[in-house]
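Quick one, tokens below:
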């Protein structure tokens, strides 16, 4: 949980940018986590903590709402997806990054496609690191 709080704070504060582009750390983490947690309540707690770490204030924000919806969708659809979790995570993170911008601001997706593509690559790199870390922890039976 602490990792998710730190990732949310880093994302919310734009503390780790690559060529001026920040990753959607929380979305990448939730997508990966969906393949490692089987308990629905535990996963929903992680979703809530991730969303809370992104926005400490009350009120509706479409981007925050989509991050939560995408996380929940991945959790429920994971059993219908590809057998290879690694490939599925890469595909999902890439697709959800573009879907996020398509819904939130499609004009930005069209006018700044390179920026969105760079963010998708950044999100995939974050997801790969998290996936490998959780895979290692699972093999060594370290609790997350």
């Amino acid at each position: 949980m602490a990792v998710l709080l730190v990732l949310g704070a880093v994302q919310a504060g734009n503390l780790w940018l690559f060529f001026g582009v920040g990753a959607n750390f929380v979305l990448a983490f939730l997508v990966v986590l969906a393949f490692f947690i089987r308990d629905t309540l535990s996963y929903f707690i992680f979703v809530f903590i991730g969303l809370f770490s992104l926005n400490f204030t009350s009120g509706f924000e479409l981007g925050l709402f989509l991050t939560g919806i995408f996380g929940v969708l991945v959790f429920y659809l994971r059993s219908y997806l590809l057998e290879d979790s690694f490939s599925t995570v890469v595909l999902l993170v890439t697709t959800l990054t573009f879907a996020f911008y398509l819904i939130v601001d499609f004009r930005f997706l069209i006018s700044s496609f390179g920026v969105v593509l760079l963010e998708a690559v950044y999100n995939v790199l974050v997801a790969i690191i998290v996936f490998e870390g959780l895979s290692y922890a699972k093999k060594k039976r370290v609790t997350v």
